[in-house]
Amino acid sequence: MTCTRAIIRSHGGPDVIEWEETAVPTPGEGEILIEQTAIGLNFIDTYHRTGLYPVPMPSGLGLEAAGRVLSLGEGVEGLSVGDRVAYMGPGLGAYATHRVMPAAAMFKLPDGVSDELAAAAILKAATTEGLVERCANVNAGDTVLVHAAAGGVGLIMVQWLKALGVTVIGTTSSAAKADLAKGAGADHVIRYDREDVASAVEDLTRGAGVPTVFDGVGKSTFEASLQCLQPRGLLVSFGNASGAVDGVNLGVLAQHGSLFVTRPTLMHYYATPDDRASGIARVWDMLASSKVTVTIGQRYALKDAKQAHIDLADRKTVGSSLLLP
Q1: Can you say how many angstroms the Cα of residue 282 is from the centroid of all Cα atoms in its chain?
Q2: Could you tell me if 250 and 312 lie in one domain?
């Protein structure tokens, strides 16, 4: 039995993605071998590929996947051969048919969550849980702005916020994406390709602004995000789809009303066993209860990962995307 996996030997465009065939690895102490059934595609994968987030070379790609346990290493407890599991790191290498991973990194899948749903959602839903409920501490009755509301995280975040009783203003770049955001529950959608976002938010909030902005776009939306906030509001900047935010003069935070800005990392919110257990329990509850449903907009064969990266960078994808071994 062989394993097919993606490897990059230098940072660059999608063409740096290569494929290699190896023997299926054997799990060591505290590890398990997974036969992967579905692999999640995330924008952060392109950051690792391009070097925006540098990684040592050579490197694998991909952070999240789901599958079944094929074998156990010594000392593994709480898992059995045949169990369905999913993970969201640590380390890169999810673009593969098989993978050895630390047993402690696994999340067992409940019956109400399929492999595809887990692979499409675990990283994005855990990101949403950490950002909404622990980073921003959003409350019922708030009005918040979500950039890229038709993206993989965006669609999950809109639904999550609506389940909490929040009024959601979303931004999108097309009529089709606006329809998706509205279908997810967004109360208002701003077409940033033809409207000024800050002006539209000012009109919608009657000049008050919003207490929280969730911005996974980055450089191109940073200034507008600040302009949309009410005094002492919070900008949660969690992505760089348009490039990294840099050259920031902290004085602008005072000028816009003593604002707060945070640049959170998911793993800091899932760092301890208690954080992981409570966070993922909340994720499974939201998914299994259908309070949050996941749109799988694209499915690619594993070896079509290059095309998947091209489509993702060109904003041609909607919802979540999967690579299927």
Answers
A1: 16
A2: no
